[in-house]
Glutamate-1-semialdehyde 2,1-aminomutase (Granulicella arctica), 428 residues
Amino acid sequence: MSRTLTRSRQLQQRAEGFLPGGVDSPVRAFRAVGGDPPFVTRAEGAYLWDADGNRYLDFFGSWGPMILGHAFPPVVEAVCEAAARGTSFGASTAAEADLAELVTRCFPSVERLRFVSSGTEACMSAVRVARGFTGRNFVIKFEGCYHGHSDAMLVKAGSGVATFGIPGSAGVPVETAMHTLALPYNDLAAVEAAFEGHPGEIACVIVEPVVGNAGTIAPGAGYLQGLRELCTRHGALLILDEVMTGFRLSLGGAQELYGIKPDLTTLGKIIGGGLPCGAFGGRAEVMESLAPLGPVYQAGTLSGNPLAMAAGIATVGYLLEHPSIYAELEKTTAAIAEGVVAIAREAGVPMMMNRVGSMFTWFFTDRAVENFEDAATSDTAAFARFHRAMLDAGVWLPPSQYEAAFVGMQHGMVEVEATLEAARGALR
Ligand SMILES: *Cc1c(COP(=O)(O)O)cnc(C)c1O
């Protein structure tokens, strides 16, 4: 299939005159895989169309939200109806408690929650609440986990820096980063050592219960349970960042799947059905330290926005009414993810595949991937070639080795076959 991108290329050049890199979020620029990023004009079900009329099978689903597929009629209708009544009021509406009730039904650990407009805000605010509630400053996070782009969360461990974080981004003061301890994922001994090294100083542990932002990495047996026990023993709060996994791995996210009760949970992506929305919530006692009840400040002009609430209620409501979706997603995703691994094996291409539910990653490495260091052994040049070949064949994967791919409800057997066919050509 020959694909022209004349119009997309023009649109990218125009955008570069106004937006840094032509984008509003860096990965969209395709720097990691090369080639021209297609400009999207519309989407429906499992497919995207670009400005040159090319059609793509979508495996990134707006980076997670589109579990029901694009332009899903019940969601579109709910948003249109809400928009006709007004797009924002800055005053309370019934829809906020309606969506909150649905969320608490899915996540029993969430007794109180607050809506925000992104996953970044959800994580930033959850960490602030944890610090305010405990009166402690240090935060433990894990290498390769992403919790949005707030200053304190943009920290990876530097090679020589076991205890104090270094800024992962220019513009993050060392004074901020030094309170974030970045440890290897799936390593309980490292967490135990950090608690012992900072007695009474660690406010919380924040973790992607299944990592998606280093590519997909599952927690080892007993890992999440171990984090829960260490937090309890040391008086720190456990924050499960379920921005990606919430409503994705099951209705109740990873905490339902693995039977873990966190103190706080952060949500985003699916909860807004494709509109800007996030939430953080958990134990009532902890959440009630938020203003106006308590001393921890947090606010938002568009928080609980009526369009976002309408899309969220339509999406989460649909999932609640159709719980069998998850078994279907499991089957479709396994067929795609394992099918391509078999093709790679035949072609002699080293590939490790990690999958949990409908999120998965094909790592171009022969090493089992259990943490970021393992993921970083991937041949990213080979991934980039694979990405370009798949895109040319009409299959749009996330444009980086270190991202999870997603399957949605509208991916069926036709899409499984199309993906395997594309991969046969690409891996040759
Ligand atoms: C996407 C993501 C975030 C950030 O959410 P934004 O809406 O992009 O700000 C935080 N945590 C995890 C686990 C994510 O996947």
Remarks:
- Confidence is low (pLDDT under 50) at residues 157-166.
